[in-house]
Amino acid sequence: MNDIWIIITASLVAANAAILGSFLIMRRMAMVGDAISHAVLPGIVIAYFLTNSRASFPMLMGAAASGMIVTTFIQFFNKKVKLQNDASIGISYTFLFAVGIILISFFGSNVDLDQECVLYGEIAYVPIDTLFIGELNIGPRQFWILLTTLIIIVSAVIMAYRKLVLTTFDEAFASAIGINVVFWQYYLMAGVSLTTVVSFESVGAVLVIAFIAGPPATAYLLTHSFKRMIYLSILIGIVCSIIGYYTAVWLNGSIAGAISSVIGLVFAIVFAVDLFKRRQVSRQVTQTSN
Amino acid sequence: MMTGNSVETHNLTVIYNKKPAIWNIDFTLPAGKIIGVMGPNGSGKSTLLKAIMGIIEPNIGYAKIFDKDLDDVRERVSYVPQRQSVDWDFPASVWDVVAMGRYARKGMLKRLSAEDKSIIEESLEKVNMTAFAQRQISQLSGGQQQRVFLARALAQQADIYFMDEPFVGVDAATEEAIINLLKSMRDQGKTLIVVHHDLHTAQDYFEWMVLLNTRLVRVGPVEDVFNQETLTETYGGTLTTLSKVASLLQEKSFPMRHK
Q1: How high is the ipTM of this complex?
Q2: Each residue of B4-56: pLDDT tens digit?
Q3: Cβ neighbourhood burial of A172 (10 Å; 0-12, 13-18, 19+)
Q4: Residue of A nearest to B112 (CA)
Q5: Domain-by-domain residue ranges, chain A?
Q6: Of A83, A115, A207, B195, which is most buried, counting CB atoms within 10 Å of its CB?
Q7: Domain formed by B5-86+157-253, architecture
Q8: From CA B126, how far away is CA B135, in angstroms rounded?
Q9: Collapsed DSSP state (helix, strand, coil) of residue B192
Q10: Options 3.40.50.880, 3.40.50.300, 2.80.10.50, 1.10.3470.10; which CATH number does A2-289 get?
């Protein structure tokens, strides 16, 4: 049963990340996910000290707040200071992450917060932390949190689908027909913040990034329709979770690490096949033209 | 034929990094004409278009379209951005992109109706891209990409069209197809405001012209504003442009190309 819960948890993260990641990579913003997942640290630490508990909700709020702060920083440096996008991302999140580290070390070592856990998560513990309705065990807490998040993300994206696609493909045109481009940028980033925040506890920041960038990039090579790219990247994310989990069991190693590696390998394989096919096509073309 | 004013600007000024991109632009343009916006590189042509359409917030001044605030006439305004401004590797078909033209009117949730679909098909037909409807946009040539952008604008069924360099990087056949299309749109009473940089074709293409070099140099009917004096004023003293102007005027007096 534990296996199933771990795979389901990873798959839920994969689905959330795939949907948002498809938009992010087409906006050349995949690393914003990276930025947010690191920048949530000070928010979490501050929430922890304010409430003196590790209850999920205050931490979630703290994390979401610092997620939005880093998004605002990036937007500000990029648009107002005219700094390059990658430089804006680099300077914003390293700063916030460092502030988080300082806060943790400053407030002493008796704190029950672990930087390692933030980065790598511990998906193996997911099945232990379960929710009860009265006496009834209804499954891991993470599962319910991630399921709720998935419902929120899916409905938010469906409702705003055209606007998100239009602002992703052609910002100027979107703006000309009266769409508030900046608002929808933040809308998307709010989704990314939410996803990273609820996911990192179980799977860690690194695997979230792997899910945001990897499956959508793989799907991008396989299809020419944006909708299909989203569906495919969800599917790829789930398949990678399953393969990754059993690889980890087989090697007796880190689950998050194994899943991330499988995501990378799947991309490499798809890329190689794609390259091979293209070579063949161009060879056929040159043969027929000769 | 539509009459009256299409665009009116008052002291329109946009400043980037403490340097003005357009400065105190004040003009009124007629409706139902093909109007060229010309000037050297960096003279603020694109910025002017974007400021009129509210894509860029002007630092000073304002613009009106059809004597109304932009927000009241949004549905009547269409925009053809520079072709290079988007990523053509985006996973979408020609049809998908042209359908975006309908979003402005349909709202963002409603499904496209049969009428929308026939408008999209019609728009594709007008730019001769029907056969490419299901083609992946990354597989198009520059001219075809430009046609797709035009089809998207047509699908909007607007009254005024702002086009940013629609003739850049397109083949001769596409250029001719585009200008014919623009003329037929004009004949239906549409107003077309076109950023352009080729001095040689300007007189043939446009009825009105805005000559721009950060400041407004001249605005008016082509026969009144397009001459050596105004072009020198617009393009300044750079050697290459001056020789271009000279060769252009030479060409005018000794026509080498027959139409």
Answers
A1: 0.85
A2: 788 888 888 888 877 888 888 888 888 888 999 988 888 888 889 899 988 88
A3: buried
A4: A162
A5: 2-289
A6: A207
A7: 3-Layer(aba) Sandwich (3.40)
A8: 17
A9: strand
A10: 1.10.3470.10
